[in-house]
# Entry
Amino acid sequence: MDLKTYLAEHFPNLTLEPPLFYNWDVAIRFELGIPLMFGINKEHYMERVYHRSLELFKALHDQEDEVLLITQAYFADKPKHKVKKLNLYRKYIKKKEPIRALRLEILPDLDCEPDETPDPRNNMYRYWTKCRIEDLKYRQLIKAICNHDVGIKPTIYHRVYFINISKKTIFHIYDDRGCDVISPSREALTDIYKEYNDWILDYDRERINNVFWDSAKY
# Structure
């Protein structure tokens, strides 16, 4: 399955960049960690972040679901000949087939103005492959994503997106503070909106309620 074709069909005109929540109409932003708690008890803070991120992921994904695992990376500090396949795929995918099928698309300097010359150092490297949830060590993968900004290893520094082909959703943890989920249809996210309503980020709650209120009456 071609990534561009899939996105064009189900998520037309979507920019696969954070913040996904503000790039798409049918979207929910969940709070994972409370920043004030981090300075008080880092261990307790991360336990909450891991718990919420994993519960939300499991609520959106079944073991047999097919997903596109996408990683968007920048290598401005590395010479071109040293840019290689990410260890992320070898480390967190159990089967060899998805790793062998790994695709790479190099997107030139996305912030370049029309009258400017693109700087190769600002190229984005987009890796992706298709697999099933059961093929992923998703618990370890999600924890490593959440560790990005908190000084805990293992850590994944790149942006990681889970596109659920079976359910037509996109799941993205933007950092330890929160995650975004989007879909072409309200119905695909109604259950998670209802079940984890208390976890919705209050700052964006009004906007989210305006989208889901009619389809999620209790």
